[in-house]
Amino acid sequence: MVSRQPRPGAHDPFLQVSVLVSVDRNQINRELLIGALGDEWPPDLIQTAAEMLADSESRFPSGPRRLPGDLVRAIQRERLLVGMLRAVAELGYRVTNVQDVIERAGVSRPTFYEHFSNKDDCFLAAFDTSAARLRAQVATAADQGGDCWRDRLRLGFDALLAFADAEPDAARVVIVEARAATPDAALRRVALIDEFANCIDTKVRELLPAGTAHSSVTASGVVGGVESMLYGRLNKGQMDDLPALLPSLMYFAVLPYEGHLAASEELGLKTT
């Protein structure tokens, strides 16, 4: 029989800006709804939804509703995605089933099947939304580095570590659990890693001095090493000091491109 115990290193549920479920009976507030659903709905409707959910222990009350059906369905879908992230982070993909997801999402089984055909379908949607948030955060941060490739890399790595620190459930799904999920999930995970490697390779070619030549394999090696480190940390639940890893990651990434002297600057080391 497969164990139903939480995986080693699983953390307690906590409130975060990109999700709809919190530690307090899945209570939902306006800021969380806006963070998940964007600005496509009027603020007064978002506020009404938050009040209704807070008054009914996170479930939409029975009887006449004051919310558009599309908004209710959008909220329920987001709740299911967060329920999937939490279930998989706590139990592992292979052990997680639909019941685990709906219990954490606070929705009914029929509601689940209104949105997703099965567990795999929901997992892929949760992966896609998590990966999209990660891409956006890393890209926005890197762009602040302008035309300095090391600044871009540093800010991008910092955003990656911040994402894993703030959203460990999402990070675990993207980096760890997708390996053990469906073939589609594994392919999407590889595509995400390749995308980050291509970004590094492109900026190196654009921004490093003319005459320096590097294989695209170098960028793949850098991203693979960073991914391997995060995989190990997430698997062991070693999340306390993630932001402190930035100098070491920068040394590892700069070394093959600019050598030991430049890489040592990222560690704050004096070289001669």
Write the layout of secondary structure elements.
Elements: H1 30-37, H2 43-55, H3 69-91, H4 98-105, H5 109-115, H6 119-143, H7 149-166, H8 168-175, H9 183-207, H10 216-236, H11 246-267
What this model shows, in words?
By secondary structure, the protein is an all-alpha fold. The protein has 2 domains: 30-116, no CATH class; 122-267, Tetracycline Repressor, domain 2. 65% of the residues lie in helices and 0% in strands. It has 11 helices and no strands. The protein has helices at 30-37, 43-55, 69-91, 98-105, 109-115, 119-143, 149-166, 168-175, 183-207, 216-236, 246-267. The longest helix is centred in the middle third of the chain and has 25 residues, at 119-143.
Shape: elongated
What is the CATH third-level topology name of the largest domain?
Answer: Tetracycline Repressor, domain 2
The main β sheet shows up as: none
Task: Summarize the amount of helix as a percent range.
Answer: 55-70%
CATH architecture of the largest domain: Orthogonal Bundle
Uncertain residue segments? 11-27
**What is the arithmetic mean of pLDDT?**
82
Number of helical segments?
Answer: 11
Radius of gyration from CA coordinates? 21 Å
Tags for this model:
mainly alpha; Tetracycline Repressor, domain 2; 0% strand; 272 residues; 65% helix
Would you summarize the structure shown here?
It is built from eleven helices and no strands.
